[in-house]
Amino acid sequence: MRKFKQGLAFSLFKFFAVLVVGILFSIVFFILFNGIKVINWEFLTKSPSNGMLSGGIFPAIIGTIYLIIGSIIFAVPFGVSAAIYNIEYGKNNWFVKIMRIMTNNLAGVPSIIFGLVGMALFVNKLNFGPSLISGALTLAILILPLIIRTTEEALKSVPEDYRTSSYSLGASKLTTIRKVVLPAAIPNILTGIVLSIGRVSGETAPILFTVAAYFLPHLPQSIYDQAMALPYHLYVLVTSGTDLEASRSMAYGTALVLVAIVFAMNLLAGFFRNKMNKLNKRNS
Amino acid sequence: MKKIKEKLMYGYLMISGGVTGIIILFIIIFLFSEGIGLFQSKNIENGYALYLNTENVIEELSPEEITNIFDGKITNWKEVRGQDLEIITYRFNDLLNSYSESDLGDNYEHIPLIIEEHISENKGIIAYLPTSFAPEESDFVRILSVGNIELKDFFIESKWMPTSEPVPLFGSLSLIIGTLLVGFLAIIIALPLGLGLAVYLSELANKKVKKVLKPVIELLAGIPSVVYGFFGLIVLAPIVQKVFKLPIGETALTGALVLAIMALPTIVSVAEDALNNTPRELKEASLALGANQWETIQKVVFPYAKSGILAAIVLGVGRAIGETMAVLMVTGNAAILPSSVFQSVRTIPATIAAELGEAPTGGVHYQALFLLGIVLFLFTLMTSVVGEVISKKKY
Predict the structure, then answer these.
(1) Of B2, B373, B388, the CB nearest to A113
(2) Fewer CB within 10 A of the end CB, N or C, for chain B?
(3) Which residues of chain A are within 8 Å of residue B233 when distances are taken between CB atoms?
(4) Do the chains contact at A112 and B6, CB–CB below 8 Å?
(5) Can you give chain A as a three-state secondary structure string?
(6) Residue B318 in contact with partner chain A when CB distance is under 8 A
């Protein structure tokens, strides 16, 4: 009887496991098989034409790349130095503790809220209008917690011996951080940055009102221009195209490009992490 | 010189250390400053007013009553605490349609007179007019005073018609219920599946399977929500429609299914971490006492991991409530109080995403959407605080 119960429970767990993995894989294959037929050189390098029924997604790819660069430029200096302060200087004082709670809460804020605040602050109050700079700043706020956390992990993983030996050679705290701690932590910091790139390229809600354009005949010329972006382009193709059935194949292609970017970034992050682990093993 | 540089650097680092706090503060300040103005706004379009015949004794009307009157659902003043008198609604367009341009005068200077005449002739009239063209208050005409939009109406009423005329209705109850319904349903669906996979990974699977599956599941957590929404719309919605024989496939259930799939990777990894935290000695002691593996999981691992699993549930609900794009694409977005999961619903984030683009900046609609943002922000803040408290509690 006990054995039977165990067998029953375990087969249920196994069934669930297979089911979940099956569902998740079917989504990936669904996108892959339908998208791969659409993707070719032209799709990646041409503008949408014919009411978005043919042509490619080049402006959306460029827009997303601009947004990635912009948000990383804004978020990394603040995020990395915040983590340096928390780990190297703060040493768990009350300020760091409060800020850590704030960072956790910020990570849990729904992305549409960032869209709202980005619109109120950057688009309206600072009068940037819907533009690349508004969108990049909004996305920078979104990825800040991720960058802070991964950088904190990276700094923590640098052995304490490094710091003490640097001090004993007469180096100041700042020099130690710059010449010893940061170089050792770089691969893990890169992990965080790469993961944020994946996040930025997929987020739709924060860019809805801050930058995204339905269709633009030309590429953005300055940071005050609107831009197309991959996730918003997919949303438009699926929900409000001129002919939903006909634009479906374009949607599959866009979805595949999007998923491919995210997967590539995650794999790259895994690569950096492995490198770091090996480094740490050799040192210890 | 070197010292100054160090001090400057320290100052910069400290400011950066506080940057997330500053941002949270900014979020709160901006949501409130943009949203709270709603309750200082008159509950009628700017520059318009409602005009009555002076013999009409009505003192005040609720926004919903006004809407029903202009929709023709209330046809007699006695239904709204007035005298027994037929209601005649009158809009500015009625005037433009029934008079020629020469009647109205070259600069429309005759309009106030015409209206005053019209109102004095019809005792049951209620006219919705721009104040610039309307007559002054007189022996025949009076203005119905319209109150401000009220906080309690915002939370108690369930009609969300932000662009309806003459008064917009901002009853967010149907949106709040819709959000909670979809969020909780998603977790109810995802929990047994996610927990099953987590138990399988932490207790049953061999090392090789685990080594492959874990990173793959983490990878899937990174798929953008708009892609999940696309999948939900094209694959899940038709399935739901067929299986339950519904007129449309975009329902609360479809939204919950998509959210459940999206929440799975998170639930699996948090729950698995919690299960893995069970000390080896406890498990071995249980096995040594003659309990088999399932009994050990049931009686030792589960209770020990309870708080971690609970935290996964709470955090999962928070995530599901705040999810925007996927839900926007698959729930059908009807702003009505849902009576079953097979109906189309609209969530708070989906409402914001769908309507903010059309709402004029600074207007009542815009403010109402920021107010919804505050509600959503408080919801998710609550879940993340509760989640943190639970996960810190030791068994």
Answers:
(1) B373
(2) N
(3) 238-239
(4) no
(5) CHHHHHHHHHHHHHHHHHHHHHHHHHHHHHHHHHHHCCCCHHHHHCCEECCCCEECCHHHHHHHHHHHHHHHHHHHHHHHHHHHHHHHHHCCCHHHHHHHHHHHHHHHCCHHHHHHHHHHHHHHHCCCCCCHHHHHHHHHHHHHHHHHHHHHHHHHCCCHHHHHHHHHCCCCHHHHHHHHHHHHHHHHHHHHHHHHHHHHHHCCHHHCCCCECCCCCCCCCCCCCCECCHHHHHHHHHHCCCCCCCCHHHHHHHHHHHHHHHHHHHHHHHHHHHHHHHHHHHHC
(6) yes
Chain A residues whose CB is inside 8 A of the B265 CB are 24
In chain B, which residue's Cα lies nearest the Cα of A230? Answer: B226
Residue of B nearest to A269 (CA): B219
**pLDDT tens per residue, range A185-219:** 888 888 889 989 999 999 999 999 898 888 887 78
How far CA A69 is from CA of A62, A141, A220, A224, B250, in Å, comes to 11, 14, 14, 15, 36
| Alpha carbons B223 and A198: distance in angstroms, whole number | 9
How near does any CA of chain B get to the CA of A107, in Å? 9
Instruction: Flag whether the pTM goes above 0.90.
Output: no
In angstroms, rounded to a whole number, what is the distance separating the alpha carbons of residues B378 and B348?
Answer: 12
B382 interfacial to chain A (CB closer than 8 Å): no
Q: Do B20 and A103 touch (CB under 8 A)?
A: yes
Using an 8 Å CB-CB cutoff, list chain B residues near A112.
322, 324, 349, 352-353, 373, 376
Report which DSSP code applies to B213.
H
Rounded distance, CA B157 to CA B154, Å? 6
B279 touches A: beta carbon within 8 Å: no
Q: Report the amino acid identity of residue B339.
A: S
- Euclidean distance between CA atoms A52 and A59, whole angstroms: 12
Spell out the residues 6+ positions from residue B1 whose beta carbon is closer than 8 angstroms to its own: none
> How many beta-carbon pairs under 8 angstroms link A with B?
253
Nearest-angstrom CA–CA distance, B45 and B131:
11
Residue B303, CB-side half-sphere exposure with 13 Å CA sphere: 8
CB contacts of B31 in chain A (<8 Å) are: 113, 116-117, 120
Q: CA dist B218 to A195, A202, A264, B56, B65, Å? A: 12, 16, 13, 68, 52
Does the predicted interface ipTM exceed a cut of 0.95? no
Tell me, yes or no, if A87 comes closer than 8 A to chain B by beta carbon: no
Alpha-carbon gap: A136 to the closest alpha carbon of chain B (Å): 15
Q: Which member of B34, B217, B319 has the closest CB to residue A120? A: B34
- Per residue in B264-284, pLDDT (tens digit) is 888 888 888 888 888 888 888
